[in-house]
Amino acid sequence: MKFGLDLTFPPTAALAAEMSSLGYTFCICYIGGDGALAGDAWHIIDGQRYPVRDIAPSFPDGFMPTYVPGQDPSGYDAASGAGNGADANEQAGACGFNETSPIFLDIQYSVWTRNPGGVMAYIPEFVRVCNEIGHPVVVYGPTTLVNLLVPQVGTLVDGVWGADIILTGHTNAPASFWSWADPAQPPPWSFWQSGSGTIAGVSVDYDTATDDALLAPYAGP
């Protein structure tokens, strides 16, 4: 099992090293989408900033390049899935990931519960467009959505990332604390976001992943 962190903005290299010292070996990267609070903070700006490259040494298992669509539930359908898939392909490259890296699609609880039919039309088209150039797609979402997708891993989607945050408020929790949170058990997910808290004053969510879960190495300049 592997242990990782979800934080909105890229940490400094020093903070990433502190996270690594606690046993975390992978990290999210918010590549974009209308719902991504980080905007382009994870993107490369040539000659000025390389946020993923700078912290990559601290996360040897890699990253979760995550795309967050807009949060208006009425905007989810097959056409928007295809359009967002094309955008996600571009945004992944802007952060330094190549065409074979996984892309994580973030479906929020409020979107899923208010327009499940639209979401289920959106996901296959998003996956199709990303798969066409080589990106596997892992879908993040609430328990009900993720459990629905579990039997379709390998056909409709390439992995699932469940959000069931059952412990909150932990400060500087070492990765070993989460050894009980096996993502293969609640039922079999690829990733499980099971807690939240802070590390060195930065808000984080704590994630676990199966040993064979898809993660992305930094591949940019």
What this model shows, in words?
This protein is α/β, with parallel strands linked by helices. Helix content is 28%, strand content 26%. The protein has a single domain, classed as Glycosidases (TIM Barrel, Alpha-Beta Barrel), CATH 3.20.20. It has an 8-stranded mixed beta barrel. α3 packs across α5 (116-133). The radius of gyration is 16 Å and the shape is globular. The mean pLDDT is 97.
Task: Give the helix/strand layout.
Layout: E1 2-6, H1 13-21, E2 26-32, H2 51-55, E3 62-67, H3 78-94, E4 103-106, H4 109-114, H5 116-133, E5 137-142, H6 143-149, E6 159-171, E7 191-199, E8 202-209
Parallel strand pairs: 1-2, 2-3, 3-4, 4-5, 5-6, 6-7
Antiparallel strand pairs: 1-8, 7-8
Primary descriptors:
221 residues; alpha/beta; TIM Barrel; eight-stranded mixed β-barrel; globular
Quick rundown:
The chain is α/β, with parallel strands linked by helices. Helix content is 28%, strand content 26%.
CATH classification, class level: Alpha Beta
CATH topology (fold) name:
TIM Barrel
Strand order of the largest sheet: 1-2-3-4-5-6-7-8
Distance between the termini: 30 Å
Q: How many E-type strands?
A: 8
* Number of discrete helical segments: 6
Low-confidence stretches: none
Shape: globular
CATH superfamily: Glycosidases
Write down the domain tally.
1
* Gyration radius over CA: 16 Å
Largest sheet: 8 strands, mixed, barrel
Strand content: 25-35%
Oligomerization state of this entry?
single chain
**Structural class by helix and strand composition:** alpha/beta
Provide the helix percentage. Answer: 25-40%
Give average pLDDT, whole number. Answer: 97
CATH architecture: Alpha-Beta Barrel
Give the SSE order as H and E letters.
Answer: EHEHEHEHHEHEEE
